[in-house]
Amino acid sequence: MTTDMMNIASNSDRAQSSIEAALIEIERSLYLSTSIHSIPDAEVAATFRAGLEWMKRFVMRPNPHLGRRGAVCPFARPVHEEPALYFCTFDCGDMNFETFVEIMLQVPKLYRRISAGFSGRSDLLSLCVFPTGLSAAAYYKFIDCAHSILKPIYMSAGLMIGEFHPLSAVRGVHSDTIFPLRADVPFFAIRSTTAHDILFIDRESGSAGQRIHELECYLSSAGQLLPDGEIARIRARIEQLKSQLVSENDPADTIPPATTAVG
């Protein structure tokens, strides 16, 4: 084995060790949001309190800039009070981005294990993952960019993932004067796909291919909750986007016609 090959193998082993250690940390730190007062680790408890206090202060309440009536998230308080809201954390301060994403790709398995043993309302079950040790300058990459990578994969698993951090620039669905994902601490929120998630997919900012994938996953996960008319509308929308995608990639649209030389 050459030196380069040995270095690659060594780096791979270190990355795998980091992933395994983080997954153990995530499992050990798992608490219901109603039980965080009993957490023995002061730093973990402080992180969870900061997240929950922000949810109570902002997410669970109405906001004049929201553009509609009701709480910023109508489901947050019922999820917390069920109780069906789990918190967990891991330290990613010295972690590279690829390892971070690999760890987050394992979280759906944890969600499924929790779900299998959960005796409450499964439609309310939610999991918040708090990555600690991130600098503010890293939020755009480890939260926003990671979310764009993770969302299609989570949706394939029947899950939605939301990204929150103090510098979030994501505006509200009904109003562009509110930043609903601008939390006091960075975290991801994970739950099963529901009928109302149509609000968060097929957005103008996404590519046609991404929007097709999201709509197909939405139908697969939440289709049984939708009326026949809505299912038909979404299927028609998928076909419209597919036609748009073919048109955008048609060589005839991008290659100029040949010109005839006149001598």
From TrEMBL:
Alphabetized InterPro entries for the sequence: DUF6875 (IPR049240)
DUF6875 domain span: 52-220
Top-rank taxon: Bacteria
Name used for this protein in its record: DUF6875 domain-containing protein
